[in-house]
Amino acid sequence: MPVSQAVRSGGVFIVLLFVSVLFLPLTSFSASAGAGIKPAIPEELQPWVPWVLHDQEEKTCTLEAAGSGRRYCSWPTRLELNVTSHGASFNQEWVVEVGGLVALPGNVPYWPENVRANDKKLVVTSRNGRPVVWLDPGKYRLSGTYTWQKLPDHLFVPPETGLVRLILQGKEIKNLQLDEQGQLWFKQIKKPVKENENSLTVQVFRRIDDAVPLQQQLHILLVVSGSPREVTLGLETGGDFVPLRLKSPLPVRLDKQGRMQLQVRPGQWQISLTLRNTAARSPEKISRGSIDGIWPEQEIWVFHGNPRLRQIQIQGLAPVD
Questions:
Q1: What is the mean pLDDT of residues 122-148?
Q2: What band does 71 get if pLDDT is binned at 50, 70 and 90?
Q3: Could you say which of 74, 169, 289, 294 is the most buried, measured as most Cβ atoms within 10 Å of its Cβ?
Q4: DSSP string computed for 173-228
C-alpha cells in the first residue's frame, strides 16, 4: 500500500501514514548474525528459579509504572463506594500475580475498618501514610467500611485504581471529581456527563529496531474526555513478538489475545510498550495487525537499520531521499 511520504536519514526510515505489511527480506553477513536465540532455562536449573527470584518476584511482570522503575503484578477492577453522612463502605476485586501490598482507599483520619478479602479478615498496615494490605497470589474481593461524624469533603483513592463507582446518599454520581492528587470529592458535584461527551482519540507511533532479537517500540498517545471507564485497545503483538516492557500512568494490562485493557479517565496520557521477537530467526515481514478493540487506522512507523548486522531491503513503501 503506498504512503504519502517517507524520509530516509542516517539509515533511519521514517514512514508517514500506515502500511499494512512491511516486508524485510534479510541478507545476513553470517548465519548466526541474523538469528535470534530464544531464551530458555535448562531443566536442571528449573528448581533454582524460586531461589533466584526470592524477593525479586516482581521482575517477572511486564507492567511498569512510568518513569518509576517499579513493576506491578496486580490488577484491580472498579472500586465501588457507598457513601452516607455517617460512613461508607467499599468493594473491589483484585487479581494478584505475585504476592505484595495492595493499596486501599482512605487516608488519615478516614482509615478503612473491618477489611476483608473473600470474607477473611485482614490486618491493615500503613505505607507512606496510606492503608495497605498484603495479598498472596490469587483472586480476591476486598471490602471494608469507614465511619465519620459528618460527610468529609473528599476521600483518597489510590492511583492503582482507575475506575470508581460512587453512590452518594443513595444516588449514583456519574460525573466524578477525582483530581490529580487522588482526592475523590463528595461536595460540589458538577452536572452529569452526557453519554455523547465520552470520546477517545488514539495515536500510535511505532519504531522497529533491527537488533538481535528484533524489537518494536510503540508510543501510544491517548486523549480522553467524559467519564472514567474501561476501554480495550485492539493491539496485535504479531505472532512471535512478546511484551518486554510496558510503561503507563493508567492501570493497564495485556490479555492473552494481546489486547491492551485500560482504565481511562479524562486527560492526555502517554503509554510506551516494547516488544521483542522470540522466534529462532528474525521475521521477513512485520504487519500492523488488528483485533477486536479500538485502534487507529493509521500509524507512523520508523525503521532503524543496523548495517553492521545485515543488509535489509524494505518493500511495500515509497521512501524519499
A1: 91
A2: low
A3: 74
A4: ESS-EE-TT-EEE-SS--PPPPGGG-EEEEEEEEEEE-SSS-EEEEEEEEEEESS-
Which three-class secondary structure state does DSSP give residue 251? Answer: coil
Where helices occur in 23-179 by DSSP H, the ranges are 49-52
Distance CA 288, CA 286 (A): 7
CA distance linking residue 165 with residue 228, whole number of Å: 9
Residue 72 pLDDT class (50, 70, 90 cuts): low
Q: What is the mean pLDDT of residues 189-207?
A: 72
Alpha carbon dihedral 135, 139, 145, 151, in 10-degree steps, equals: 100
321 pLDDT higher than 70: no
Residue with cell 494490562: 253
Whole-angstrom Cα distance, residue 226 to residue 195?
A: 8
Phi/psi of residue 48, nearest 5 degrees: -85, -10
Residue 56: what pLDDT?
60
Q: What is the mean pLDDT of the chain?
A: 75
Grid coordinates belonging to 22: 512491511
d(CA 310, CA 34): 7
Grid cell for residue 154: 473528599
Distance between CA atoms of residues 94 and 114, nearest Å: 17
Task: Please determine, for residue 113, whether its predicted confidence score (pLDDT) is greater than 90.
Answer: yes
For residue 266, cis peptide bond before it (omega within 30 degrees of 0): no
For residue 188, the model assigns a pLDDT of: 59
- Distance between CA atoms of residues 243 and 215, nearest Å: 10
**Which position has the grid cell 485493557?**
261
Q: How far apart are CA 254 and CA 262, in angstroms?
A: 9
Cα separation, 174 vs 274, in Å, equals: 35
| CA quadruple 151, 156, 162, 166: dihedral, nearest 10 | -10
d(CA 248, CA 15): 25
Task: Give the separation between CA 206 and CA 302, rounded to whole angstroms.
Answer: 6
